[in-house]
Amino acid sequence: MRKGRTKDFEGSEHELRALTRELDELHHDVGLPATRDAVGHMGATSRRTFLLGAGAMAGGAALAAVGSGALPALSGASARRLSALGAATFPPAGLSGDLAVATVAASLENLAVFAYTAGLSAVTAGKLGTVPPAVATFATTVKGQHTQHAAAWNAVLKSHGKAPVTVTNPSLTPTVQSDFAKVTDVTGLAQLAVTLETIAAQTYQAETAKLKSTAAIALSSSIQPVEMQHIAILYYVLGLYPGAQTSAGTPLAFNPTSQAL
Prior knowledge:
8 helices
Protein backbone atom coordinates (compact mmCIF):
# COMPACT_ATOMS: atom_id res chain seq x y z
CA MET A 1 0.00 0.00 0.00
CA ARG A 2 1.41 3.36 -1.01
CA LYS A 3 2.14 6.03 1.55
CA GLY A 4 -0.86 8.28 2.24
CA ARG A 5 -3.40 5.54 1.52
CA THR A 6 -5.67 3.56 3.82
CA LYS A 7 -7.83 0.48 3.35
CA ASP A 8 -10.93 2.64 2.76
CA PHE A 9 -9.29 5.38 0.69
CA GLU A 10 -7.40 4.31 -2.41
CA GLY A 11 -6.39 7.80 -3.48
CA SER A 12 -3.36 9.81 -2.52
CA GLU A 13 -3.66 12.30 0.33
CA HIS A 14 -1.27 14.61 -1.49
CA GLU A 15 -3.45 14.55 -4.59
CA LEU A 16 -6.65 15.01 -2.58
CA ARG A 17 -5.17 18.04 -0.81
CA ALA A 18 -4.22 19.48 -4.19
CA LEU A 19 -7.71 18.87 -5.58
CA THR A 20 -9.26 20.51 -2.52
CA ARG A 21 -7.02 23.57 -2.90
CA GLU A 22 -7.96 23.87 -6.56
CA LEU A 23 -11.64 23.52 -5.67
CA ASP A 24 -11.40 26.23 -3.03
CA GLU A 25 -9.40 28.56 -5.26
CA LEU A 26 -11.88 28.21 -8.12
CA HIS A 27 -14.75 28.73 -5.68
CA HIS A 28 -13.22 31.96 -4.36
CA ASP A 29 -11.93 33.23 -7.71
CA VAL A 30 -14.93 32.36 -9.88
CA GLY A 31 -17.87 30.81 -8.05
CA LEU A 32 -18.07 33.12 -5.03
CA PRO A 33 -17.66 36.37 -7.03
CA ALA A 34 -20.42 35.20 -9.39
CA THR A 35 -22.62 34.44 -6.40
CA ARG A 36 -21.91 37.84 -4.88
CA ASP A 37 -22.65 39.56 -8.18
CA ALA A 38 -25.98 37.77 -8.45
CA VAL A 39 -26.89 38.68 -4.88
CA GLY A 40 -25.62 42.21 -5.49
CA HIS A 41 -28.32 42.77 -8.11
CA MET A 42 -30.88 42.35 -5.37
CA GLY A 43 -29.75 45.33 -3.30
CA ALA A 44 -27.76 46.15 -0.18
CA THR A 45 -30.11 44.33 2.20
CA SER A 46 -29.67 41.06 0.36
CA ARG A 47 -25.89 41.48 0.27
CA ARG A 48 -25.91 41.85 4.06
CA THR A 49 -28.15 38.79 4.38
CA PHE A 50 -25.70 36.79 2.25
CA LEU A 51 -22.57 37.92 4.11
CA LEU A 52 -24.02 37.69 7.62
CA GLY A 53 -26.07 34.59 6.87
CA ALA A 54 -23.08 32.62 5.67
CA GLY A 55 -21.19 33.26 8.88
CA ALA A 56 -24.15 32.52 11.12
CA MET A 57 -25.02 29.28 9.38
CA ALA A 58 -21.44 28.08 9.42
CA GLY A 59 -21.20 28.70 13.14
CA GLY A 60 -24.50 26.97 13.84
CA ALA A 61 -23.62 23.93 11.79
CA ALA A 62 -20.19 23.58 13.37
CA LEU A 63 -21.70 23.56 16.86
CA ALA A 64 -24.41 21.02 16.06
CA ALA A 65 -23.89 17.68 17.77
CA VAL A 66 -24.51 14.22 16.39
CA GLY A 67 -26.74 12.10 18.56
CA SER A 68 -27.39 8.44 17.78
CA GLY A 69 -25.87 8.42 14.32
CA ALA A 70 -28.50 10.69 12.79
CA LEU A 71 -28.09 14.14 11.37
CA PRO A 72 -27.69 16.96 13.88
CA ALA A 73 -31.07 17.82 15.34
CA LEU A 74 -32.64 21.19 14.72
CA SER A 75 -34.03 22.91 17.77
CA GLY A 76 -36.58 25.51 18.76
CA ALA A 77 -38.56 27.20 15.99
CA SER A 78 -36.65 25.36 13.27
CA ALA A 79 -37.58 21.97 14.68
CA ARG A 80 -41.23 22.96 15.05
CA ARG A 81 -41.29 24.30 11.51
CA LEU A 82 -39.73 21.12 10.14
CA SER A 83 -42.16 18.90 12.02
CA ALA A 84 -45.04 20.82 10.46
CA LEU A 85 -43.69 20.38 6.93
CA GLY A 86 -44.07 17.34 4.75
CA ALA A 87 -42.68 16.62 1.31
CA ALA A 88 -46.11 17.35 -0.18
CA THR A 89 -46.23 20.84 1.35
CA PHE A 90 -42.73 21.96 0.43
CA PRO A 91 -42.11 24.58 -0.87
CA PRO A 92 -44.64 26.34 1.39
CA ALA A 93 -47.91 27.48 -0.16
CA GLY A 94 -47.73 30.89 -1.78
CA LEU A 95 -44.26 30.44 -3.23
CA SER A 96 -43.89 29.74 -6.93
CA GLY A 97 -41.46 30.31 -9.78
CA ASP A 98 -38.02 31.59 -8.80
CA LEU A 99 -38.95 31.82 -5.11
CA ALA A 100 -40.03 28.17 -4.99
CA VAL A 101 -36.74 27.17 -6.60
CA ALA A 102 -34.83 29.31 -4.09
CA THR A 103 -36.64 27.60 -1.21
CA VAL A 104 -35.85 24.09 -2.45
CA ALA A 105 -32.25 25.05 -3.25
CA ALA A 106 -31.69 26.52 0.22
CA SER A 107 -33.15 23.41 1.85
CA LEU A 108 -30.83 21.17 -0.19
CA GLU A 109 -27.82 23.28 0.77
CA ASN A 110 -28.88 23.12 4.43
CA LEU A 111 -29.11 19.34 4.19
CA ALA A 112 -25.62 19.15 2.72
CA VAL A 113 -24.25 21.34 5.52
CA PHE A 114 -25.78 19.15 8.21
CA ALA A 115 -24.71 15.93 6.49
CA TYR A 116 -21.08 17.03 6.21
CA THR A 117 -21.23 18.26 9.80
CA ALA A 118 -22.52 14.87 10.92
CA GLY A 119 -19.77 13.13 8.97
CA LEU A 120 -17.04 15.31 10.45
CA SER A 121 -18.42 14.75 13.95
CA ALA A 122 -18.42 11.00 13.37
CA VAL A 123 -14.81 11.20 12.21
CA THR A 124 -13.82 13.16 15.33
CA ALA A 125 -15.58 10.60 17.51
CA GLY A 126 -13.66 7.78 15.83
CA LYS A 127 -16.82 6.10 14.50
CA LEU A 128 -15.54 5.70 10.93
CA GLY A 129 -12.21 4.02 11.53
CA THR A 130 -9.03 5.53 10.12
CA VAL A 131 -9.86 8.66 8.13
CA PRO A 132 -7.03 10.47 6.30
CA PRO A 133 -6.77 14.15 7.37
CA ALA A 134 -7.08 15.20 3.71
CA VAL A 135 -10.59 13.71 3.59
CA ALA A 136 -11.65 15.73 6.63
CA THR A 137 -10.14 18.87 5.08
CA PHE A 138 -12.12 18.28 1.90
CA ALA A 139 -15.35 17.78 3.86
CA THR A 140 -14.76 20.96 5.87
CA THR A 141 -14.07 22.95 2.71
CA VAL A 142 -17.18 21.66 0.96
CA LYS A 143 -19.36 22.27 4.01
CA GLY A 144 -18.28 25.92 3.97
CA GLN A 145 -19.20 26.24 0.29
CA HIS A 146 -22.65 24.77 0.87
CA THR A 147 -23.12 27.20 3.75
CA GLN A 148 -22.43 30.12 1.44
CA HIS A 149 -24.77 28.74 -1.20
CA ALA A 150 -27.62 28.45 1.32
CA ALA A 151 -27.02 32.01 2.48
CA ALA A 152 -27.14 33.23 -1.12
CA TRP A 153 -30.52 31.59 -1.79
CA ASN A 154 -31.86 32.99 1.47
CA ALA A 155 -30.73 36.41 0.28
CA VAL A 156 -32.94 35.89 -2.78
CA LEU A 157 -35.89 35.14 -0.52
CA LYS A 158 -35.07 38.08 1.75
CA SER A 159 -34.99 40.45 -1.22
CA HIS A 160 -38.62 39.49 -1.93
CA GLY A 161 -39.74 39.82 1.68
CA LYS A 162 -39.85 36.07 2.31
CA ALA A 163 -38.58 34.19 5.35
CA PRO A 164 -35.23 32.42 5.06
CA VAL A 165 -35.19 28.64 4.86
CA THR A 166 -33.58 27.22 8.00
CA VAL A 167 -34.69 23.60 7.60
CA THR A 168 -33.24 20.69 5.69
CA ASN A 169 -35.21 19.41 2.70
CA PRO A 170 -38.21 17.51 4.16
CA SER A 171 -38.45 14.97 1.34
CA LEU A 172 -34.82 13.86 1.66
CA THR A 173 -34.00 14.31 5.35
CA PRO A 174 -35.51 10.99 6.60
CA THR A 175 -33.67 9.00 3.92
CA VAL A 176 -30.37 10.74 4.62
CA GLN A 177 -30.77 10.15 8.35
CA SER A 178 -31.46 6.46 7.74
CA ASP A 179 -28.54 6.09 5.32
CA PHE A 180 -26.14 7.98 7.56
CA ALA A 181 -26.94 5.67 10.48
CA LYS A 182 -25.56 2.80 8.37
CA VAL A 183 -22.27 4.53 7.50
CA THR A 184 -19.28 2.81 9.10
CA ASP A 185 -16.31 4.01 7.05
CA VAL A 186 -14.97 6.61 4.61
CA THR A 187 -16.36 4.74 1.62
CA GLY A 188 -19.90 4.79 2.97
CA LEU A 189 -19.64 8.46 3.87
CA ALA A 190 -18.34 9.38 0.41
CA GLN A 191 -21.11 7.37 -1.27
CA LEU A 192 -23.75 9.20 0.76
CA ALA A 193 -22.14 12.53 -0.09
CA VAL A 194 -22.14 11.63 -3.81
CA THR A 195 -25.87 10.97 -3.62
CA LEU A 196 -26.58 14.34 -1.99
CA GLU A 197 -24.30 16.26 -4.34
CA THR A 198 -25.79 14.50 -7.39
CA ILE A 199 -29.34 15.39 -6.39
CA ALA A 200 -28.31 19.00 -5.85
CA ALA A 201 -26.35 19.28 -9.11
CA GLN A 202 -29.10 17.72 -11.18
CA THR A 203 -31.76 19.86 -9.51
CA TYR A 204 -29.83 23.02 -10.34
CA GLN A 205 -29.33 21.81 -13.89
CA ALA A 206 -33.05 21.08 -14.36
CA GLU A 207 -34.33 24.21 -12.64
CA THR A 208 -31.97 26.82 -14.11
CA ALA A 209 -33.80 26.72 -17.44
CA LYS A 210 -37.07 27.45 -15.64
CA LEU A 211 -35.83 30.51 -13.74
CA LYS A 212 -36.95 33.94 -14.92
CA SER A 213 -34.85 36.56 -13.16
CA THR A 214 -31.32 37.28 -14.35
CA ALA A 215 -30.00 37.20 -10.77
CA ALA A 216 -31.51 33.80 -9.99
CA ILE A 217 -30.23 32.33 -13.27
CA ALA A 218 -26.74 33.66 -12.57
CA LEU A 219 -26.82 32.31 -9.01
CA SER A 220 -27.97 28.83 -10.02
CA SER A 221 -25.50 28.72 -12.91
CA SER A 222 -22.61 29.67 -10.62
CA ILE A 223 -23.44 27.00 -8.02
CA GLN A 224 -24.18 23.99 -10.24
CA PRO A 225 -20.59 23.59 -11.54
CA VAL A 226 -19.30 23.69 -7.95
CA GLU A 227 -21.59 20.80 -7.03
CA MET A 228 -20.20 18.89 -10.03
CA GLN A 229 -16.67 19.53 -8.77
CA HIS A 230 -17.63 18.11 -5.38
CA ILE A 231 -18.92 14.98 -7.12
CA ALA A 232 -15.75 14.57 -9.19
CA ILE A 233 -13.51 14.72 -6.12
CA LEU A 234 -15.75 12.33 -4.19
CA TYR A 235 -15.49 9.87 -7.06
CA TYR A 236 -11.71 10.22 -6.79
CA VAL A 237 -11.95 9.35 -3.09
CA LEU A 238 -13.94 6.27 -4.09
CA GLY A 239 -11.46 5.34 -6.82
CA LEU A 240 -14.05 5.76 -9.59
CA TYR A 241 -14.28 7.62 -12.88
CA PRO A 242 -14.62 11.31 -11.86
CA GLY A 243 -17.56 12.27 -14.07
CA ALA A 244 -21.23 11.65 -14.86
CA GLN A 245 -21.87 7.92 -14.90
CA THR A 246 -24.53 5.26 -14.50
CA SER A 247 -25.04 3.35 -11.26
CA ALA A 248 -22.85 0.65 -12.80
CA GLY A 249 -20.03 3.12 -13.38
CA THR A 250 -20.44 3.55 -17.14
CA PRO A 251 -19.36 7.08 -18.16
CA LEU A 252 -22.06 9.33 -19.62
CA ALA A 253 -21.52 11.99 -22.26
CA PHE A 254 -24.00 14.35 -20.60
CA ASN A 255 -25.04 14.86 -17.00
CA PRO A 256 -28.57 13.46 -16.53
CA THR A 257 -31.38 15.04 -14.49
CA SER A 258 -33.18 11.84 -13.46
CA GLN A 259 -32.43 12.51 -9.77
CA ALA A 260 -33.46 16.17 -9.78
CA LEU A 261 -36.14 17.14 -7.28
